[in-house]
Design goal:
- The protein is an all-alpha fold.
- The protein has a domain of 91 residues.
- The protein has five helices and no strands.
- The two termini are 19 Å apart.
């Protein structure tokens, strides 16, 4: 079995679902103000992406060693730091945003394929404290406690 324990739990699955539904449907539907749907994606993404990074890293390790690597506090902290760093960069630096948009595919099928749409908006950084919840959740996985 793949070492992706941190993803197969209702909280990360809910965060991923909210992010995808929000980006594909809610933002287009116009039911909620744009600022709110934007923040919703930021919150869900900041919870989910560090866990996706740790699961991806551990799966790559498993592919090379065929041993199931454990999630560690150090790996979790690194994934959170990378996620926060990318968020800060793409929300405040036009060059980082442009690079990100050229690499990451869009989730919204009505948009041009080949680039994500990221709005430079430093107020999105208000969502950064959500990673504290990711840390708390990840620690439970690290320690093998019920999540």
């Amino acid at each position: 079995m793949l070492p992706i324990d941190e993803l197969w739990h209702p909280w990360p699955l809910l965060a991923a679902s909210v992010m995808v539904l929000n980006d594909v449907w809610l933002k287009r539907a116009g039911l909620l103000p744009g600022w709110l749907t934007g923040k919703l994606s930021d919150v869900a993404g900041l919870f989910f992406f560090p866990l996706l990074l740790t699961a991806t890293w551990r799966t790559a390790q498993w592919a090379f060693t065929r041993q199931r690597p454990r999630l560690t506090e150090r790996l979790l902290a690194a994934a959170i730091a990378v996620t926060c760093g990318v968020m800060i960069a793409i929300k405040t630096l036009p060059s980082a945003r442009d690079l990100f948009e050229s690499v990451v595919p869009k989730l919204d099928p009505t948009q041009t394929i080949g680039a994500a749409t990221v709005v430079l908006d430093p107020t999105d950084l208000l969502a950064l404290p959500v990673v504290w919840l990711t840390w708390r959740f990840g620690l439970k996985v690290v320690r093998g406690a019920p999540t």
